[in-house]
């Protein structure tokens, strides 16, 4: 049996190299540009020490509301983009409510923890609330993406983050333990779905419209 000619061997080898190269490019295109945030990380005391959540509002506000949310949850996005602006402007900024946001990433959402970590790294630069608004506003774009990390970085640049510092924070997975600690705290409080709100010692699941929140705040502390 005649052996393949040198040219045939060359083209066969070229085909193998090309196939490997194409496979590598596809892998590069499909992988996220940022590391995965571990789901079952062991929470250390230093991860949560002094952290009560992301706080907005006066320390002397008569009512405190804790929101537990998942950035990839459509209902959370609905609350953040429709109801939250009214709550922020009419209840938080007027001194009636002290608002606390806590992470509660759901296991069925592939990008939930990465989004939470992105926001934590934005908070490290004093830009949490601006970044949170941007992430919720663009949820329909990044949620189905194969590389949400790249889109999170782009949103960070738009709100004025130092991209190099953000990259370093993300690569170090600096806040993985904090995120897990917030999720654990939510479970202890009775949270089972997102969004959920802890108001006056009671958990209210689902999207709460502004009018409902205002009525609850009025019942706990009547408007002056």
List the helices and strands and how they pair.
Elements: H1 6-30, H2 45-48, E1 54-56, E2 63-69, H3 74-92, E3 97-103, H4 112-123, H5 128-137, H6 139-142, H7 148-158, H8 163-171, H9 176-189, E4 196-199, E5 202-205, H10 210-220
Parallel strand pairs: 2-3
Antiparallel strand pairs: 1-3, 2-4, 4-5
Helix pairs in contact: 4-5, 4-7
What does this protein look like?
With 224 residues, this protein is an alpha+beta fold. It folds into two domains: 1-30; 45-220, Glutaredoxin (3-Layer(aba) Sandwich), CATH 3.40.30.10. It has ten helices and five strands. Strands 1-3-2-4-5 form a five-stranded mixed β-sheet, sandwiched between helices. A hairpin with a 2-residue loop joins β4 and β5 (202-205).
Instruction: Name the beta content range.
Output: 5-15%
CATH topology group of the largest domain: Glutaredoxin
Read across the widest sheet, the strand sequence of neighbours is 1-3-2-4-5
Number of domains: 2
Task: Tell me the CATH architecture of the largest domain.
Answer: 3-Layer(aba) Sandwich
Principal-axes shape call? globular
Please trace the helix and strand order, writing H or E for each element.
HHEEHEHHHHHHEEH
Termini separation (Å)? 99 Å
- Average pLDDT score: 88
Q: List unreliable stretches of 5+ residues.
A: 10-32
Question: Biggest sheet: strands, sense, closure?
Answer: 5 strands, mixed
**Strand runs, count:** 5
Question: What is the name of the CATH class of the largest domain?
Answer: Alpha Beta
| Fourth-level CATH superfamily of the largest domain | Glutaredoxin
List the total number of helices.
Answer: 10
């Amino acid at each position: 049996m005649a052996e393949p000619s040198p040219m045939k061997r060359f083209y066969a080898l070229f085909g193998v190299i090309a196939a490997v190269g194409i496979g590598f490019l596809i892998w590069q295109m499909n992988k996220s540009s940022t590391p995965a945030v571990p789901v079952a990380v062991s929470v250390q005391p230093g991860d949560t020490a002094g952290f009560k959540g992301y706080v907005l509002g006066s320390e002397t506000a008569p009512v405190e509301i804790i929101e537990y949310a998942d950035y990839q949850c459509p209902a959370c996005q609905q609350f953040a983009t429709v109801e939250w602006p009214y709550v922020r402007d009419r209840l938080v900024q007027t001194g009636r409510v002290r608002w606390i946001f806590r992470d509660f990433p759901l296991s069925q959402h592939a990008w939930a923890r990465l989004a939470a970590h992105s926001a934590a790294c934005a908070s490290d630069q004093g830009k949490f609330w601006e970044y949170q608004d941007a992430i919720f506003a663009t949820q329909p774009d990044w949620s189905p993406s194969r590389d949400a990390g790249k889109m999170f970085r782009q949103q960070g640049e738009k709100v004025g983050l130092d991209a190099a510092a953000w990259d370093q924070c993300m690569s170090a997975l600096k806040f993985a333990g904090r995120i897990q600690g917030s999720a654990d705290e939510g479970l202890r409080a009775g949270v089972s779905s997102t969004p959920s709100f802890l108001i006056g010692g009671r958990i209210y699941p689902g999207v709460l419209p502004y009018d409902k929140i205002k009525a609850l705040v009025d019942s706990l502390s009547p408007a002056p």
